[in-house]
């Protein structure tokens, strides 16, 4: 099939232009690393379109920082100073979300995760960002901390033109069903199989 | 297996530290989109480490431009102005490589591709970059324009600490064999199956 050619034209009553501009729900799942990396790669394109980028990392440690964070913070400053690209917000669950007055409950990650989702829901309803990266968001769903059906309903009904990328292993089936694009990265060969240790600039 | 734990310790006589710092040859292949996107995501981490990033796109059109190009050019300027991150060079085959005095032979892509590889080989020998992205480089290999065995020999013997990421469908077996890390992205579900057209910020 030639690139850009669609295999079926859906009977959804939309024009090609409307269909082209439909906001997407993207899920990057599977057991391999590279899920977040690919999501941040997509976010580069969104940044270049001038979209407001909102990253929400559902990671437990406040200390854990990937190179993408520094790079996107730099791109956010480029936008603030020159108007090029889009604005960038980067939030981490860590030991408390940055918008929260609470220090974050080192012991109650479920509560922290629910607070993160509540804020994302508010932003979705306000159509605050053009692109959301909900990094490792499948885990609080998988562990039952956040209700999958509520998330799917909220995402399905989101107003405006907001793209959402969700990463993490074991994406719940209801989320996969609701997604427009689901990508899975498979390992063909990995250096850790041959005793290679994780290294700076590659793994973080 | 816990993250960061290796499954075997190779009898290569290297210390863990040496092994941790081994430069990697990475291949992103498979039929899905997302190969280049993931490679550029990895390059964000390298940029944050202060590595010199060299991107070489083996694409035919000079007009084709992905959002990542603008974002990395912005990051390169951030480096030049503030010293943050690493320097960035972005070269496209298009209608002639930027370093070339020739206009580029719109008709002889094989010749253009060989010229690109000759320059990359020079840079590898000089250890010019910390990270190379050879985007869509599998195609000139597949079409026999550039000799796979020569490429593999050159990559295997590259001096210093240079990471190389190669993207494109149908990576030749000799290249896969030589690689430290091979990633393949599989489609679980794609919007073009449902008549979704490619769109700005997502597909480019």
UniProtKB/TrEMBL annotation, chains A, B:
<dbReference type="Pfam" id="PF02572">
    <property type="entry name" value="CobA_CobO_BtuR"/>
</dbReference>
<dbReference type="InterPro" id="IPR003724">
    <property type="entry name" value="CblAdoTrfase_CobA"/>
</dbReference>
<dbReference type="InterPro" id="IPR027417">
    <property type="entry name" value="P-loop_NTPase"/>
</dbReference>
<protein>
    <submittedName>
        <fullName>Cob(I)yrinic acid a,c-diamide adenosyltransferase</fullName>
    </submittedName>
</protein>
<feature type="region of interest" description="Disordered">
    <location>
        <begin position="1"/>
        <end position="20"/>
    </location>
</feature>
<feature type="region of interest" description="Disordered">
    <location>
        <begin position="85"/>
        <end position="110"/>
    </location>
</feature>
């Amino acid at each position: 099939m030639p690139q850009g050619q669609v295999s079926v034209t859906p009977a959804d009553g939309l024009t090609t232009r409307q269909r082209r501009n439909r906001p997407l729900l993207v899920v990057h799942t599977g057991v391999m690393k590279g899920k977040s990396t690919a999501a941040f790669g997509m976010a580069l394109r969104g940044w270049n379109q001038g979209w407001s980028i909102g990253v929400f990392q559902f990671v437990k440690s406040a200390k854990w920082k990937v190179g993408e964070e520094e790079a996107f913070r730099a791109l956010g400053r480029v936008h603030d100073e020159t108007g090029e690209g889009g604005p960038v917000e980067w939030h981490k669950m860590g030991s408390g979300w940055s918008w929260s007055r609470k220090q974050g409950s080192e012991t109650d990650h479920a509560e922290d995760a629910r607070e993160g989702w509540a804020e994302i829901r508010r932003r979705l309803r306000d159509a605050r960002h053009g692109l959301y990266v909900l990094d490792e968001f499948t885990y609080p769903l998988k562990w039952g901390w956040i209700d999958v059906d509520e998330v799917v309903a909220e995402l399905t009904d989101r107003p405006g033109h907001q793209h959402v990328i969700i990463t993490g292993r074991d994406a719940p089936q209801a989320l996969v069903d609701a997604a427009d694009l689901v990508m899975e990265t498979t390992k063909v060969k990995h250096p850790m199989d041959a005793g290679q240790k994780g290294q700076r600039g590659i793994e973080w």
